[in-house]
Design a protein that fits this description.
- The chain has 4 helices and 11 strands, in the order αααβββββββββββα.
- With 188 residues, it is of the alpha+beta class.
- A 5-stranded antiparallel sheet has the order 1-2-9-4-7, with helices on both faces. A 4-stranded antiparallel sheet has the order 3-8-5-6, with no helix packed on it. Strands 10-11 form a two-stranded antiparallel sheet.
- α1 packs antiparallel against α2.
- The longest helix is centred in the last third of the chain and has 17 residues.
- It is globular and about 50 Å long.
- The two termini are 20 Å apart.
- The model has no long low-confidence stretch (mean pLDDT 97).
- Bound molecules: fe (ii) ion (FE2).
Length: 188
């Protein structure tokens, strides 16, 4: 299958016109991740962990996310629906709900390559990569990921604070540094 980045964006954009956009995006991602090699070619190679924006507009954001082995990010919300399609490695998702003193754990789901996860707009989750390989996914949101005010929670105290994307970027850099300085293998 020959696939271009524009095709990936178009499939998600046309899903927005469907009756239930997150479910239509889920179906689109399920098809796209069925051919990881084609998706890799369309989206571009990965050389380290990080977030690569592929598209963002007021109604849709598409990110390619590569989680470095051993990394974990704080619990956070999105305030729009989100769909995650894994096409390499595995994400460990932990879910939370709001509680009187911050958050309480509410289960989790391991998401191996080939799986798709739909999150409602109230969802609060944290993500970890506990495997010794990079975890690679498309993350699609029903709004502008970079413009929506959101929250994150301290992973130890569960205290709520504004989402800090720069801090998230630093977590990726630190995880990359740790992984590669310990002789860890590059993605794929
Ligand atoms: Fe998230």
């Amino acid at each position: 299958m020959l696939l271009a980045l524009e095709d990936v964006i178009e499939r998600c954009q046309s899903a927005l016109a469907e009756h239930t956009p997150p479910l239509a995006v889920r179906d689109a991602l399920q098809e796209l991740i069925a051919d990881p090699a084609a998706l890799d070619q369309a989206v571009g190679p990965i050389d380290r962990g990080g977030i690569t924006p592929l598209h963002h507009a007021s109604d849709l954001t598409i990110l390619r996310v590569a989680w470095t082995p051993g990394m974990a990010i704080n619990p956070h919300d999105h305030r729009t629906w989100a769909v995650i399609g894994m096409y390499g490695g595995q994400e460990d998702n932990a879910f939370y709900r709001r509680a009187a003193d911050g958050l309480e754990p509410a289960g989790g789901r391991e998401l191996p390559a080939g799986d798709v996860l739909v999150l409602g707009e109230d969802a609060i989750h944290s993500v970890a990569n506990s495997r010794r390989e990079f975890a690679v996914a498309l993350h699609v949101y029903g709004g502008d990921f970079f413009a929506i005010d959101r929250s994150e929670w301290d992973p130890d105290t569960y205290q709520e604070r504004p989402r800090d994307l720069e801090g998230t970027g630093r977590l990726f850099e630190e995880a990359n540094e740790r992984w590669f300085s310990a002789g860890g293998a590059p993605p794929r």
